Amino acid sequence: MRFTPAGERLLQLARNLLPQVATAERDLAQIIEGEAGELRVAVECHTCFDWLMPAMGEFRPLWPQVELDIVSGFHVDPVGLLLQHRADVAIVSEAEPQTDITYFPLFSYEMVGICAKDHPLAHKNIWEAEDFADETLITYPVPDDMLDLVKKVLNPKGVNPPRRHSELTIAIIQLVASRRGIAALPYWTVMPYLEKGYITSCKITSDGLRSELYAAMRTEDANKSYVDNFCQIVRDRSFADLSGLSVLEMK
């Protein structure tokens, strides 16, 4: 299917008008609400930093008086930082209902299994829980309830493989490439290494393993224009820059 000439003209009009409308809304908000503020971002996802940087770079010139920063370190409970007023936005994998916390859906993404190209599992199109049983699973050093592979695939089947941990994504990929174990990572993270032939990837279960990301904030801050604009920029840039994303709706 394709647009008619009339449809193409309207599409071009929308592409020209929508950015102008967004700019006008932002200008009005800055006039009414003021331009200054503070936006400290906390994350619980090790793979967040790379794709957050372009969004932060786009946000800064639009809101130059807003002090934007990332709360240093990886945080097991970033929502707790919101409630303690030590952060203003938290990137989290679950939208757990909580008093005084509002969630903004960012996106859903696929987790894939990765192994060395000469690993026996490289010849399988789909990995099931049993395929992990006799392998060393390389993960980030986080609790099991923060690992979707463990929560959604391994635990229900009673599979508990030996572990090895690394805080760095590139280190996990290097360990996998040297046959020190296997791992499950977001598709967008491993795609450059798949293209270079360092590793191979496989689908996890016939239905695939999908994870989610949300932006959490204090409900009292949810209507602040610069907070809402930041979340929208993060979502839009992610869909523009990352592969394999799906639209995520609040449940």
Helices, strands, pairings?
Blueprint lengths: L4 H29 L3 E7 L4 H15 L3 E5 L7 H6 L5 E4 L8 E15 L10 E2 L9 E3 L8 H7 L8 E3 L3 H9 L5 E4 H9 L4 E5 L4 E10 L6 H17 L3 E2 L5
Parallel strand pairs: 1-2, 1-3, 5-9, 6-7
Antiparallel strand pairs: 3-10, 4-8, 4-9, 4-10, 4-11
Walkthrough of the structure:
The structure is a single chain. The protein is an alpha/beta fold and 251 residues long. 37% of the residues lie in helices and 24% in strands. It contains 7 helices and 11 strands. It has helices spanning 5-33, 48-62, 78-83, 148-154, 169-177, 187-195, 225-241; strands at residues 37-43, 66-70, 89-92, 101-115, 126-127, 137-139, 163-165, 183-186, 200-204, 209-218, 245-246. Strands 1, 2, 3, 4, 5, 8, 9, 10 and 11 form a 9-stranded mixed β-sheet that branches. Strands 6-7 form a two-stranded parallel ribbon. Helix 2 links the parallel strand 1 and strand 2 (66-70). Helix 2 (48-62) crosses helix 7 (225-241).
